[in-house]
Amino acid sequence: MNIKITGSGSSIPGKIETNSSFSEHSFYDASGEPILNSNEEIIEKFKAITGIEQRRYIQDNQTVVDIAVEAAQKCITDAATDKETIDYLIVAHNVGDIGLNTHQVNTLPSLASKIKAGLQIQNPSCVAYDLLFGCPGWVEGMIQATVFIKAGVAKKCLVVGADTLSRVLDPSDRDSMIYADGAGAALIEKSTEAGGVLSHKTVSYTSEGEAEYIFYGPANNLGKGTKYIKMFGRKVYEFALSKVPLAIQSCLDESGASIEDVKKIFIHQANLKMDDAIVKRFYRLYKKPMPENVLPMNIQEFGNSSVATVPTLYDLVKKENYGGHQLNKGDLILFASVGAGMNINAISYRV
Q1: What are the backbone angles phi and psi of residue 85, rounded to the nearest 5°?
Q2: Given this model, what pLDDT does residue 339 score?
Q3: Distance between the two ends of the chain, CA-based, in angstroms?
Q4: Domains and CATH numbers, the chain
Q5: Average pLDDT, integer, range 67-82
Q6: N or C end of the chain: smaller count of CB under 10 Å?
Q7: In what order do the strands lie in the sheet with 332-339?
Q8: Cα–chain-centroid distance for residue 268?
Q9: Helical segments of 137-195, H only
Q10: Regarding beta strands 2-11 and 181-191, do their DSSP bridges make them parallel or antiparallel, or are they unpaired?
Q11: Whether 343 contacts 202, CB under 8 Å
Q12: Residue 87 Cα distances to 5, 118, 128, 141, 187, angstroms
């Protein structure tokens, strides 16, 4: 049985926030002490490490449902499919449906239910549910969809990844500059065409305190009550470099394909320097140098939109040859992600 992606779509929010937008912020460290470096120094160092020059935020009158519906509708159109034939609508996110300045996480009803309503899907047998799995949520949704199809309980699944992290940012935290908003979607279904999903791998680490690396916490300037997205950046970086290459290796080895066959790696757009180091370490496991054009990146322009980064990047490369990258029939590609949990996953896929 071949299981293939037959359509994709993305929603790129219209509000552009450049690094200079943070020049008037007052930054504090995690202990609540003011950071004495100038904002110019902070921003330059941030850019050097992450590669981010700008990011995208949704408009004030929007929520995550708006961009998720847009990405999903583009995906359905791209696949030229009847939306009423979709068996599962799986929506990966992290912070729910949050209005501007409300700081109120809203997950009732589920985002999937709201998105299904927004798409005007009438079929009650289209099962809609949310998936909370950190940044690897969209990749995990694709894995779940693959398993449903293999098991014969579904023929066609729509998997959406959407987050609006701009609604949970601590303005006093330097790490807040990394986050962004976005939505991406893919339709995956049983196919008679060659290729498709070859293998997948998922792991969750919690025994060494990894579950606390990314979390909700108070503002760095000791604000009370409201909590924001927080992370221990150094711990995340070291964890990712240590564990992610091994998970990707396990996935590729299970596929039976060779490292020389890999054409592109669509990895979660978390940090340019980190992603580059992960992929170099992955190739080092095979005693190979990292090929020059194997790693598409869009974090420089769009920031880290969590679950939306991988499907958005895939859609842009597939449709626009983003960054000079392109996909050809028969190409072997890898999807991979790491994030809160700490969770890691990967998929090997033949275009």
Answers
A1: -100, 5
A2: 96
A3: 15
A4: 2-193 (3.40.47.10), 197-350 (3.40.47.10)
A5: 98
A6: N
A7: 196-204, 343-350, 332-339, 262-267
A8: 5
A9: 137-151
A10: antiparallel
A11: yes
A12: 15, 16, 9, 14, 11
Q: What are the backbone angles phi and psi of residue 181, rounded to the nearest 5°?
A: -120, 155
Under 8 Å between Cβ of 311 and 4: no
Which stretches of the chain are DSSP H helices?
39-50, 64-79, 111-118, 137-151, 233-255, 272-284, 299-302, 309-320
pLDDT in the model for residue 223 = 67
User: Which residues make Cβ contacts (< 8 Å) with residue 171, sequence separation at least 6?
Assistant: 25, 219
- Cα–Cα dist 21/140, whole Å: 34
**8 A C-beta contact, residue 197 and residue 210:** no
Task: Label residue 226 by pLDDT band (50, 70, 90).
Answer: confident
Q: What is the mean pLDDT of the chain?
A: 95
Q: The tokens of 207 are what?
A: 């025994």
Q: With bands split at pLDDT 50, 70 and 90, how would you rate the model's confidence at 106? A: confident
Computed on alpha carbons and rounded to an integer, the radius of gyration of the chain in Å comes to 19
Residue 115: φ, ψ to 5°: -70, -40
Give the count of alpha carbons within 13 A of 292, CB side only: 1
**12: Cβ contacts below 8 Å, ≥ 6 apart:** 56, 182, 302, 312
**Among 160, 206, 199, 202, which Cα is nearest to 66's?**
160
**Total residue length of the chain:** 351
> How far is 35 from 9, CA to CA, in rounded Å?
41
| Confidence class for position 105, pLDDT limits 50, 70, 90 | confident
Does residue 342 have a cis peptide bond before it, meaning omega lies within 30 degrees of 0? yes
Q: Is the pLDDT of residue 222 over 80?
A: no
- Position of tokens 């999937």? 112
Residue-wise pLDDT tens digits, 265-310: 999 999 999 999 999 999 999 999 999 999 999 999 999 999 999 9
Q: How confident is the model at residue 221 (pLDDT cuts 50, 70, 90)?
A: confident
